Structures
1.
Amino acid sequence: MSSILRRVLHTAFNRPYSKPTHSCGELNATHAGSNVVLAGCILPERKISNRLSFFPIKDFSGTTQLVVRRDNHDQPVLSSLSRVPVESSVLINGRVSVRPTKDRRPSPTGDVEVHVDSFTVLNPAAPVLPFYPSDDQAIVNDELRARFRYLDLRRTALANNIRQRSHVSRLVRDALHTEGFLEVETPLLLKSSPEGAREFLVPSRLSQSDTPLFYSLPQSPQQPKQLLICSGAIDKYFQFAKCFRDEDGRKDRQPEFTQIDLEMAYVAWGPHPNAHNNPWRIGGHEVRAVIESLMGNIWHNVQGIRLPSSFNVITYAEAMARYGSDKPDTRFALEIQNITSLLPHHHQSSLANLGQVLETLAIRRSENLPFVRADDQYQLTDEPTVTRIVLTSTNLLTWLCNLVSPAVDPEHHISLNNVLKVNVGDTLYVSRRHAAPKGGATPLGRIRTQLAESAQNLGVSDVILIVSWLPHLVPGDYVPPAYPHLFTHHPFTAPMWQDITAMYDGRIDEVRGQHYDLVLNGTEIGGGSVRVHDAAMQEYVFSQVLQLDESEKASFDHLLQALKCGAPPHGGIALGFDRLMSILCNTQSIRDVIAFPKTGAGTDPLFKSPATVTNDVLSQYGIQGIRT
Amino acid sequence: MSSILRRVLHTAFNRPYSKPTHSCGELNATHAGSNVVLAGCILPERKISNRLSFFPIKDFSGTTQLVVRRDNHDQPVLSSLSRVPVESSVLINGRVSVRPTKDRRPSPTGDVEVHVDSFTVLNPAAPVLPFYPSDDQAIVNDELRARFRYLDLRRTALANNIRQRSHVSRLVRDALHTEGFLEVETPLLLKSSPEGAREFLVPSRLSQSDTPLFYSLPQSPQQPKQLLICSGAIDKYFQFAKCFRDEDGRKDRQPEFTQIDLEMAYVAWGPHPNAHNNPWRIGGHEVRAVIESLMGNIWHNVQGIRLPSSFNVITYAEAMARYGSDKPDTRFALEIQNITSLLPHHHQSSLANLGQVLETLAIRRSENLPFVRADDQYQLTDEPTVTRIVLTSTNLLTWLCNLVSPAVDPEHHISLNNVLKVNVGDTLYVSRRHAAPKGGATPLGRIRTQLAESAQNLGVSDVILIVSWLPHLVPGDYVPPAYPHLFTHHPFTAPMWQDITAMYDGRIDEVRGQHYDLVLNGTEIGGGSVRVHDAAMQEYVFSQVLQLDESEKASFDHLLQALKCGAPPHGGIALGFDRLMSILCNTQSIRDVIAFPKTGAGTDPLFKSPATVTNDVLSQYGIQGIRT
């Protein structure tokens, strides 16, 4: 550190310094002539001429241009300010002036500059930093950015995401409080299930017959929130809930994440009585109304967009048939077509006997240009059960023959091509699959998603959709202690009331659940359900539907007991706040909307976690490492 | 379950039920004549006469009286409603009527009653419940209440605390957002220090050379929040932060708790330049202003009380001298008096040579009646270094002689008694202690606190106080990785600027820290400091003041590195939200302001945590139980 810096630094420490009078980002022409005090990071000097230098100064609110002229009076200021390392915190005393018209910039403070009278270095940066966040040109690798996250957070784009996240959380809380919701904190040190899969454990210093005891971190506050509503203390609960999932790293997953979690008492068990044409055929429309209003509020305030007051509702069966996905991206029309009924009768019967259907996804040159280009470029062939056919004058009337036997005659091809509106040059993806869809996507659905991800210039705008009427539960759906899917299929979802008899009759495949997913642009950002509130029904679901054994059921004792205390009917939803923010901020990854994220592998290069622990510490918890 | 219940239940399941039109707690005379639909828990029937029964119905908002008359028309309703188990969830269709004047009650809905036309049982309670929350007379043991917390939460008082907690959190967030603070979430899976004391560990499935790796749960977001401010992305940060501390159970501690955590960039390092008589002699007055405004806002809105706009500030030295405590309860005047200077000169010199002082706490019959009664009753003698003397006509002029030698003559006793304003019948607690106080309380301070806790009818109102100017750090203050005290003494606190030279000269005992505690009615509810922002100074504190070794220092590498990037000067505070709510709700324990608390031993009787985990699960984490 140079002696001049040591001196100004000493001055800064040993004297109270003046308070900044303005933020760097708020100065404009109305401040012309004012004396101001600014605090911020000093950015690289731009020498405009031998007589003039610019130094941008930046704080949380923006950047202002500082000006120092090389005349006799300014000489000492300029020579010392030039020596302050970039990114140092400085305090500037100066005077605002309006720039000549030709020098104005379109940035927020672009009309003004601040002539520096004097300055104090509050904290000098090291002469060389790992990288320079103000340098947009430098390519900095992800590992370095993660390790020096506090420097990376100085980048305006990333800082804006973190600030936007706070704004949206405020908006959501305000909206929910206004609708009578109360925020209640639920425990993070919760019960560890004996199976323990996917939960993070927390060793305790308590033990039972010399066996160490563990808490676990919740994957969601599902049980506490249901117990809270069962208590009747609260009729509308919400929480920005910290959740944890110990699973192998994935692109867009974090071991810890945040949910906007809601639950409401006295939700209906059936459709609104006056809404005969309403596609929402289940209960819980109170929850739907809250979510539609909340999302509308966010989009209006953050994006300046008016969403429709009522979101489209599609059933799981329809979503799988038309889009091949339980979280369809309906921003573009590209739809899957089931061509089984267009085949000759004997083909129809043999498919029916196998319980199968034949589907196509057509990429038409006449209408799907972005998809045509993506298809030409990528020629997707990695789905083993999907055949990709480019129609030519040679195969136009024979393309089905390689897929089904006996061969299909040209007349059938002609009518099929007419129905599909395809011609020479178009691409057909053809797939044979089980008629009853399962899981999250069909093979053609995956092709459709890949094409959309590769297609450029789709020119789409946000679409929010509700997927509803999902299959209820079948044995094996319950992967203890958690949910095979982020939000769906927990064992507390109520069956549709029309299907209760089927459920009690053991026709479990026919039972649909009172479940809803919120899908935004093809990403599932939330899910919820109307819950079972009848203890006998919940016990039946555990024993007869999911076929849990006694010890598995025992971990739900408190819930069954709470239902038996006259719990009100209830339902709720949870929204993934990280994903929602990632979509709102248009980032590649949820890591860009989290202040201190972990890597895909679950490590934290900044805090260097996880880390080793000594045996002495472990022994307090009655545990030790397994020697290999 | 009776068949009639099964039938109504079936009805409730199989049909959408009407939405409640009103909350039970909102009905009043303006609703007279309206048809209403109410949903809630049914409470025990009160048979007023052979012809009339009352059933209170309760929801989150309050209780309304339902009326059923035993006439021909109502007979079926009454006989079935009488058979619904208490605490069942019911849906009532009825008509509001105003009570005759003589029957009105002072409760919020006491002017009206609802005549029941029909009802639906939404969920019947079991015929016998573990206890009945509506029964104020029954004494229910704590263990049962904890195990069936969802029933206990039906008690109005407890439910109100949980609701009040939500209101206060909203108030705090609104106030802080309005002042430009942004809420940022920081990681909960953080770095485990090698020492690991007092931290909860979280095993990960990652390992390093076959050694298992662990995260730890944070005791506070101290390091992440400082790094955030160092980044410059945010100038005013706050968070309702989940914190964890693994320590042996105590009356008013929970293994997980919530802090209102703040940090601000560019806080001053010295007193306000225009405030010569201001007792706030350190930096960070920006933080002080935020807290005073915030607390004033809470007290005004929640308690209807105007707090002084500026809280009293007392130094640690003065608090220890006058009240014998670093968190003095100044709601009452009872003060400790140092009588060293009133002793004969040779006693003064010998005390000075020993570095000691002689102090008294006088309980005067003439003025401290509640304390006199407490003293008479408890005759506190459990402090070994304190002598309790009841003044009598015999010992009035000799009482000091048993405490110091050589004997003190009667003339000195007369003048001393005059200064102390004591006479026959008064009690004196006398203590000899080291002149430089250490830790949280002196022996007389503990006596004073015990007397105050025992005294009845003190008739005091809330007093908030700031204790400031604490001793900085000395070797051994740093108990890795945490803080010997809830909030104080972490290694990032800046020295007072007047004492920087003393610190660098190695006169560490003379250095005072830029630290402040917020004390409410003798309870520490918050603490904070101005932080060191200069990397060289922080390194000096680690190495020379705290004498950490290289490996201990290594765990702070990221902080030192962040300071070297030109971090702005910063400071902050953290408030204990559970304690604050406990004081606001006037509860005996913080457990009464937490929805699902743990016992003093750290167990959760509701969720039955912590619990055992199978060896299979543990082995995924590379750990096993230690066999004994």
Note: Chain A touches chain B through 145 residues (CB under 8 Å).
2.
Amino acid sequence: MALRHVVNLSLFGVAFAQSVRGHATMASNFVFRQLFDTKSSTYTYLLGDAESKDAVLIDPVIEHAKRDAQLVKDLNLNLKFAINTHMHADHITGTGELKKLTNCKSVISKASGAKADIHIDESDVIEFGTHKLRVFSTPGHTNGCVTYYIPEQGMAFTGDALLIRGCGRTDFQEGNSTNLYENVHGKIFSLPDETILYPAHDYKGMMSTTVDEEKRLNPRLTKSLSEFVEIMENLNLAYPKMIDKALPANKACGLYDLPEEYQT
Amino acid sequence: MALRHVVNLSLFGVAFAQSVRGHATMASNFVFRQLFDTKSSTYTYLLGDAESKDAVLIDPVIEHAKRDAQLVKDLNLNLKFAINTHMHADHITGTGELKKLTNCKSVISKASGAKADIHIDESDVIEFGTHKLRVFSTPGHTNGCVTYYIPEQGMAFTGDALLIRGCGRTDFQEGNSTNLYENVHGKIFSLPDETILYPAHDYKGMMSTTVDEEKRLNPRLTKSLSEFVEIMENLNLAYPKMIDKALPANKACGLYDLPEEYQT
């Protein structure tokens, strides 16, 4: 009751029309969707250019390749690249299935050691329409981890290098705590404070963070390097349950050596 | 390899600084976070004003009240209102717990029949800082369902009235298929096509949609009224497993009559 008619609604209607136009201008031709896989708690990201229709998917999951291809179609986009931030150990990448369902090319870092149509490396730029994803090499969780940064939108996709109030484990797959710490501090934390960070996973229902928040609040990465290394050495995590299926499949871009249940 | 150095990186650095500044201006003082509860597949939304620090939470879930209050604190916000889109049947609202953890007031529609500090109705406006949420009454899933619309951002929070490629069930809690159809068409679909719609739930890992997409692609609501009513009458859904715990608790804003496991 107390809130009723705080604003004159006829005036509100006018402001509304103006601000929606303003918003449409601000949003320009950038299309963005975050998607989720509940089984592995993986986030997939669709980024597109509404004019050229070119789109990219970051970290697709095999079980959702059809969902993702359908969304690309629903939004009248053409999938140009299906990209991974690294060779995942907890799920099978959707890039192989997406190559069957669309005309996309698969992309992963050269340092990952995985097959793909295109291998990227530090300072490369992936273009879709007028938009540009800049590649930062951020190894530590694995040797091939990269962060994709889209400066115009103030967004970065950090894979498992930096998670929300956490980071990827460093106890398998060439994990190296010192490298992870130095790359997060040297590269991700050097982005503008307001940069929105989108990780490959979250396990608590959080979906994004910012450079500012993680610099202030990350319980591991706000520590000194030596304290960080000690924390990472004492996590005592279980053996990753999907790793023996995921790595052989992901080495081949999710296309070959698929476990029986994924073969189509 | 093919992508390497498509853009001259020294020039890119300059463009980057400019566009990040541009983005900071565009984003203005609006803070936004989507949050998820995996158990009930419920989305919670935090909206804030970075200058006045006033914030609102839409559809908080009791199990995540501490997470949500911590995020409010991490972002240096003050929670003014904890709001529900309707009296939920699948989870217990977090509004009661949030009233204990913060100084917020609880808000729900008058038509819901639930207790709250503030009852809202059609055309009310909820203010936080310079931002305004406009209330649309959109009954059909329940009598008290509302949609919260923030015109300046081109966003609407549709609760269970409209889901992504779906809608809330209409077979319990005063459900009425004709009302739901007419309110979605008359109110939500009358918003600008580019309006981003954030539902109370999704079960397939999708997080948002737009008016345009649902007008084109919603498998139920693109049908005629009579076809829609027939579809809704033949869903044969299971009895909601949480309803007998959730409704009594939610009638009291999640504060009283809590099942034993939630009592603090």
Note: The helical segments of chain B are 9-27, 65-74, 95-101, 177-186, 211-217, 225-233, 243-251.
